[in-house]
């Protein structure tokens, strides 16, 4: 049977959810009479470099559906948007995005959870590439919970199995946003309940990252050399009896059906900064201490 090749697909990519500029794109399927799957190649035109179309290519093993899911995902759209913002990589015209190789797609149900790709971005003056391997996971939240009891302030942490590090780590309760609605504080409250069993009220949450300069986007970026993750860090302060502290210590929590093997740990706040290597903890402590020093925190409700 003869195989018809050279089919052209045209499609408009909508990025209105993220307020990113739209672009034109075409897709080319390069087919050969062989047992191998045809490579997928897709072309987009960015407003910042209209004369230089960008090729999006699927690495071997990436399926047609995963390829299109990656291109249409909020993770990829947001990354393209970031490139073209006021302080984006492409904003000053001395850099150009030439090619993106989609290398890995991990689905969380019907949506992409993790996306791995390599971007060829070059310095126009020298022709040299800048490092461009991206692990995209999107925005996330973390919560510093401080509980006062009998004159002592305690921090609530989670003990979790972290396969990428090969370690069991103490961390702040945290999690990724599940959708594109941008409900950071709602996600924070939900993650705390899932990971510790503690129910917090949205109105009692203080966004510590909101004290940052507007140029930061009011989020912290823990690993910009390889990951796009941006985290909003919240603070909760409350008072409890000593029995509650005892009940929390060692409590098993987490969504077991999702593989979350979590134990709750409670440590004195004065020892927190040297208790764990979790960057979320250390960033939260730094933000809290500076906000306290500058008198930015509202008074603790009684």
UniProtKB/TrEMBL annotation:
State whether keyword ATP-binding applies.
no
Which segments constitute the Nudix hydrolase domain? 136-289
**Domain of life, source organism:** Eukaryota
What is an annotated GO biological process for this record, any one? nucleoside phosphate metabolic process
Per its Swiss-Prot or TrEMBL entry, what cofactor is needed? Mg(2+)
Keyword Hydrolase appears in the UniProt entry:
yes
Instruction: Report the InterPro entries cross-referenced here.
Output: NUDIX_hydrolase-like_dom_sf, NUDIX_hydrolase_dom
The record, for SUPFAM superfamilies, names: Nudix (SSF55811)
Give UniProt keywords alphabetically. Answer: Hydrolase
In the record, what terms sit under GO molecular function? ADP-glucose pyrophosphohydrolase activity; ADP-ribose pyrophosphohydrolase activity
Descriptive protein name: Nudix hydrolase 14, chloroplastic
Q: What is the lineage of its organism?
A: Eukaryota, Viridiplantae, Streptophyta, Embryophyta, Tracheophyta
């Amino acid at each position: 049977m003869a195989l018809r090749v050279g089919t052209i697909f045209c499609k408009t990519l909508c990025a209105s959810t993220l307020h990113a500029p739209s672009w034109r794109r075409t897709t080319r399927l390069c087919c050969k009479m062989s047992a191998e799957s045809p490579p997928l190649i897709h072309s987009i035109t960015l407003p910042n470099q209209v004369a230089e179309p960008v090729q999006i290519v699927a690495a071997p093993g990436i399926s047609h559906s995963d390829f299109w899911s990656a291109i249409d995902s909020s993770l990829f759209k947001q990354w393209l948007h970031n490139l073209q913002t006021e302080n984006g990589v492409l904003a000053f015209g001395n850099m150009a995005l030439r090619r993106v190789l989609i290398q890995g797609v991990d689905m969380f149900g019907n949506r992409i959870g993790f996306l791995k790709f390599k971007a060829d971005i070059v310095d126009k003056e020298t022709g040299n590439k800048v490092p461009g391997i991206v692990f995209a996971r999107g925005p996330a939240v973390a919560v510093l919970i401080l509980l006062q009891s009998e004159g002592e302030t305690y921090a609530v942490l989670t003990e979790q199995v972290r396969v990428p590090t090969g370690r069991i780590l103490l961390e702040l309760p945290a999690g990724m946003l599940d959708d594109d609605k941008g409900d950071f504080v709602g996600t924070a409250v939900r993650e705390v309940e899932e990971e510790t069993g503690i129910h917090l009220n949205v109105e009692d949450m203080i966004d510590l990252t909101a004290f940052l300069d507007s140029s930061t986007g009011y989020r912290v970026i823990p690993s910009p050399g390889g990951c796009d993750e941006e985290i909003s860090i919240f603070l909760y302060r409350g008072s409890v009896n000593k029995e509650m502290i005892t009940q929390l210590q060692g409590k098993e929590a987490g969504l077991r059906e999702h593989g979350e093997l979590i134990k709750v740990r409670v440590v004195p706040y004065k020892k927190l900064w040297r208790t764990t290597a979790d960057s979320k903890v250390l960033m939260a402590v730094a933000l809290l201490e500076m906000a306290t020093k500058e008198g930015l925190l509202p008074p603790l409700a009684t």
